[in-house]
């Protein structure tokens, strides 16, 4: 018989998280998660879920009935949209300007769909003109999929214009809003977005592990008209909705054991967002980006993304020549308790990603980041 090892309690340090996510979590959100666990079918918990749904609708700016939180991170939110909507043989126009557009392609192909790629350079926004051409050349396309805020590069694409194109060509739109929700303007109903997913750990400053999603009535009709079963039982939204909204009689049906305490946390983070107000939150991120931009430019750092397409809450900057990427990030972590992100994919080893998401988008964080980078870059040894 194995002898149980003695292990001390895990006590993480208090970091300042200014990478691509997770972001700093609001103290109130951490406190909410520590509240007593109750059953996931408890009437009080069901009432909290109804409030949570209305808060997600507010954050997305939608009245979609099919709006909820998937019990898994944003990557599962992505998969939720594709496995529920795309059937084998259906054509999807997929926009790829970074890592997460490529993940969309992989999701399309895993469910048996046909991905037609519209590629733009890393650091560029999705080209509306290129998408228009792809839709014109593929009149049988059923969907247009794109990343609103590409976390791997910090590029922000024109979701309003892209969704208008999708509607014009009779396509349903699938939108990645993992990094954009709560940080930049996003209006699901006004822009005609059909399926959208996000993550709890970015601009919502909640604990990682949940994915808010929303489906338009047209998207719901597409799900109901499927000729094949949804590939994933766990992510099948026709089953999950019985838990989130109940059947015609209002009784909730068991689907899975919900992450009760994590949902407390999301409820609190979205409640805080509603108290601040969406437009104020968008403006705060924009304002803090300008403060950070001035500081980074004084240090001689250059942005990957052109100013017109730049995401305020995720700032990708090129690493100066002769600077050791990993060594700088290690020094920031060890000497300042400050985390910034490494580059992904084509930008690995070439760029840093500095996040200003949610609770992290504060003037004191920006000041710490600029001061720490200044000291480390001047004396990197």
Please summarize the sheet with the most strands: 7 strands, mixed
- In percent terms, what proportion of residues is strand? 5-15%
H/E element string? EHHEHEHEHEEEHEHEEHHHHEHEEEH
Bulk shape: globular
Record field, number of beta strands: 14
Strand order of the largest sheet: 2-10-9-8-5-3-4
What structural class do the secondary elements suggest? alpha/beta
Portion in helices: 40-55%
Distance between the termini: 49 Å
Estimate the mean pLDDT confidence. Answer: 96
The DSSP helix count reads 13
- Stretches with pLDDT under 50, minimum 5 residues: none
Cα-based radius of gyration, to the nearest Å = 21 Å
Quick recap of the structure?
Helix content is 41%, strand content 14%.
Description:
By secondary structure, the chain is of the alpha/beta class. The protein is 41% helix and 14% strand. The chain contains 13 helices and 14 strands. Strands 2-10-9-8-5-3-4 form a 7-stranded mixed β-sheet, sandwiched between helices. A 3-stranded antiparallel β-sheet has the order 11-14-13, covered by helices on one side. Strands 1-12 form a two-stranded parallel sheet. Strand 8 (172-176), helix 7 (188-191) and strand 9 form a beta-alpha-beta unit. The longest helix is centred in the C-terminal third of the chain and has 21 residues, at 278-298. It starts with 15 loop residues before the first strand and ends with a helix. The mean pLDDT is 96.
